[in-house]
């Protein structure tokens, strides 16, 4: 059982999602307003479903705010035509998104995939160049400095670093990291890579190389 928060100003959508996810045995808290996302509630959550277009504080702003005290997966619920808002949301710490209208089966599969990914607990570490990966804690260190990565950024970083020199296409990274066909698509991978490169650069590291017309690869000598 996972503890899931659903935030949507539509009472009907909240009721639908709550009913569907509770059938899978999850504990679901449905909220009509992002302002109710306080620190105590978010710290106890295993996953958050967050509508983008909300009155007052929108989903993207809320994501940026609550990332200060939760690292659980955050999935946006978005209408078509809001791609720019969603990319901003990925930059604010979101992991993925579902495009409305979506089927209940699609929702349940997407939620389960993210929760399954969270339950993977490797029990070892490895080093690539000057970066140290703690696979159990899902953290990356440059010396003693921990990089502040979202879960999606971490998974991309680990995937590339495990196979230095191997070129990954955006499609392969999407499948490797998320393990399913994501509405986010290859644009989300590009956005996560951009954010990840910025955080690596802050500690003097630039191991992710673009292979034009193909994708990305990890150069350990630049880590």
From TrEMBL:
<dbReference type="GO" id="GO:0000976">
    <property type="term" value="F:transcription cis-regulatory region binding"/>
</dbReference>
<dbReference type="InterPro" id="IPR036388">
    <property type="entry name" value="WH-like_DNA-bd_sf"/>
</dbReference>
<keyword id="KW-0805">Transcription regulation</keyword>
<protein>
    <recommendedName>
        <fullName>Stage 0 sporulation protein A homolog</fullName>
    </recommendedName>
</protein>
<dbReference type="InterPro" id="IPR001789">
    <property type="entry name" value="Sig_transdc_resp-reg_receiver"/>
</dbReference>
<comment type="function">
    <text>May play the central regulatory role in sporulation. It may be an element of the effector pathway responsible for the activation of sporulation genes in response to nutritional stress. Spo0A may act in concert with spo0H (a sigma factor) to control the expression of some genes that are critical to the sporulation process.</text>
</comment>
<keyword id="KW-0804">Transcription</keyword>
<dbReference type="GO" id="GO:0032993">
    <property type="term" value="C:protein-DNA complex"/>
</dbReference>
<keyword id="KW-0238">DNA-binding</keyword>
<feature type="DNA-binding region" description="OmpR/PhoB-type">
    <location>
        <begin position="123"/>
        <end position="220"/>
    </location>
</feature>
<dbReference type="GO" id="GO:0000156">
    <property type="term" value="F:phosphorelay response regulator activity"/>
</dbReference>
<feature type="domain" description="OmpR/PhoB-type">
    <location>
        <begin position="123"/>
        <end position="220"/>
    </location>
</feature>
<feature type="modified residue" description="4-aspartylphosphate">
    <location>
        <position position="51"/>
    </location>
</feature>
<feature type="domain" description="Response regulatory">
    <location>
        <begin position="3"/>
        <end position="115"/>
    </location>
</feature>
<keyword id="KW-0597">Phosphoprotein</keyword>
<dbReference type="Pfam" id="PF00072">
    <property type="entry name" value="Response_reg"/>
</dbReference>
<dbReference type="GO" id="GO:0005829">
    <property type="term" value="C:cytosol"/>
</dbReference>
<dbReference type="GO" id="GO:0006355">
    <property type="term" value="P:regulation of DNA-templated transcription"/>
</dbReference>
<dbReference type="InterPro" id="IPR001867">
    <property type="entry name" value="OmpR/PhoB-type_DNA-bd"/>
</dbReference>
<dbReference type="InterPro" id="IPR011006">
    <property type="entry name" value="CheY-like_superfamily"/>
</dbReference>
<dbReference type="Pfam" id="PF00486">
    <property type="entry name" value="Trans_reg_C"/>
</dbReference>
<dbReference type="InterPro" id="IPR039420">
    <property type="entry name" value="WalR-like"/>
</dbReference>
């Amino acid at each position: 059982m996972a503890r899931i928060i659903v935030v949507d100003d539509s009472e009907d959508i909240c009721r639908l999602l709550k009913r569907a996810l509770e059938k899978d045995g999850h504990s679901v808290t449905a909220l009509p307003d992002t302002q109710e996302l306080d620190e105590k509630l978010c710290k106890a959550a295993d996953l958050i479903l967050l509508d983008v277009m909300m009155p007052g504080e929108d989903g993207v702003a809320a994501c940026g705010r609550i990332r200060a005290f939760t690292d659980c997966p955050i999935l946006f619920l978005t209408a078509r035509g809001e791609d720019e808002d969603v990319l901003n949301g990925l930059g604010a710490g979101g992991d993925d998104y579902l495009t409305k209208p979506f089927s209940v089966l699609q929702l349940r599969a997407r939620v389960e995939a993210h929760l399954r990914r969270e339950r993977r607990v490797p029990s070892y570490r490895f080093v690539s160049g000057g970066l140290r990966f703690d696979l159990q804690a899902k953290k990356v260190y440059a010396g003693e400095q921990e990089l502040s990565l979202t879960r999606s950024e971490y998974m991309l970083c680990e995937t590339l670093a495990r196979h230095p020199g191997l070129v990954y296409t955006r499609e392969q990274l999407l499948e490797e990291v998320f393990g399913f066909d994501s509405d986010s698509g290859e644009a989300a991978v590009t956005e996560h890579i951009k954010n990840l490169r910025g955080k690596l650069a802050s500690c003097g590291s630039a191991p992710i190389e673009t292979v034009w017309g193909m994708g990305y690869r990890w150069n350990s000598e630049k880590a």
